[in-house]
Here is the input.
Amino acid sequence: MIQNDGTERAAVTGTFPDGQREGSPRVTLRPITAHDQDEFLELVRASAGLHHPWMSLPATPQEFQEYLGRFDDPPIAEGLLVCTRDTGAIVGNININSIIRGRFQCGSLGYAGFAPTAGRGYVSEGIGLVLRHAFEVLRLHRLEANIQPGNHASLKLVRRHGFHREGYSPGLLFIDGAWRDHERWAVTATALGMDSGGPHPTLPAR
Here is the structure.
């Protein structure tokens, strides 16, 4: 993890395809780092009412550091921030969790917008970029999103990006003090017509 903000952001931008950057005139993606702690925690506090009861993000410095630890091994999970292109301000976060290679080539998508800029479509644009990053750069085949049935805004968001409902999982995740039911939505690179230029090296030949 690079400790200089300027170097970090320039290097990260270079990892995304040029078309991906051009595809969203308002936002960019970059990995979350320790330098984001204060801004991130302030946004989480400001968004408590927006996120409850659908998700729980780190709200203290200790929780934030533990959260960062999930992304120490990029092949397993990636933590990305959606930032405005003009100011670099954080407007959302999108994680690709539980990345499994081999015959599965799948990751689980988690995302959240922040209250100060909610309703402007920034996270939707960010998800469009993440789909291209996941399928064309990471060379995943499939992304899943598990969403509570009452989270209508999130369900609408994944539909907009081509996800299809595959099933219903009772008591899937422990959120807000209880095991919550979730709908399982998924999309594949094939369904979106995205091409990585070749399979990931861990994909078996047959």
In short: Residues 1-23 have pLDDT under 50 and may be disordered.
